[in-house]
Structures are given as structure tokens and as C-alpha cells.
Amino acid sequence: MNLANIYDTINQLERDIRELDAYDALSEAMDKLLNDDEARELYINFRNYQTSVQTKMQLGQELSEEDVKKAEDMQKTLANNAVLSELMQKEQQLNQYVEDVNQAVGRPIREIYDRANQATKLSSEDKDGE
Question: What InterPro entries does this protein map onto (predicted)?
């Protein structure tokens, strides 16, 4: 198989994802969010906070108890908003497909490393048996 065929497959996969009911459902849920001022503001605040937490983590900074509490409170607030709750549910449904694709795409690479792990395991068993 040549490289062009792999990219053809990737492009087809993208088109197929866009045709999933779960994709349409997520898109509709996002439209609802964008048309709801309260939900949109909560979403923007959460995304901004999420970005700041991720930045801290990437810089190796510890999250304070206040950070954790704020994240938990925001999560509860989001879950209690019907529009955001629906968006998160639809996102989870679509993400399941993406996760399945990632598992399948990564399988050949994992198999290569599994061989090395198995060889290492056998090698250590041989040494233990000596």
C-alpha cells in the first residue's frame, strides 16, 4: 500500500464521521449552545478555565485545592444546564467512535511494542530460572 492510499482512507474516514448520526447530533447540540446566552457563557468560562488548568499542568505546576474545587463546581454547573448537559452527552457519543478509530489505528504499532515487551518478559523469566 502506498502513502496516497493511506491518505485516501483518512479522507474517507473524515467524510464517514461527518455522516454519522452522532456527528449531526453533536452539531445540533452545539447550535443550541450558541443560541443560548447562559449556556454559551458557561461554556466559554469553562473552556477558558480548562485551558488555564492545562497550562499549569504542562508547566509542571501543582493544582491547588482551590483549582480542584473550582473545576468540580464548574462541572456541576455545566451538568445542571440542560443545553450543556446535552452537548456533553452528544460529545461522549461521538468520541466513542473516535476512540474506536484511534484503537484500530494504533493497534499495529502496539503489536510491535508488545513483541518487545513479550521478549523482555521471556528474557527476565530465563534469568530468573537460572
Answer: Com_YlbF, YheA/YmcA-like_dom_sf
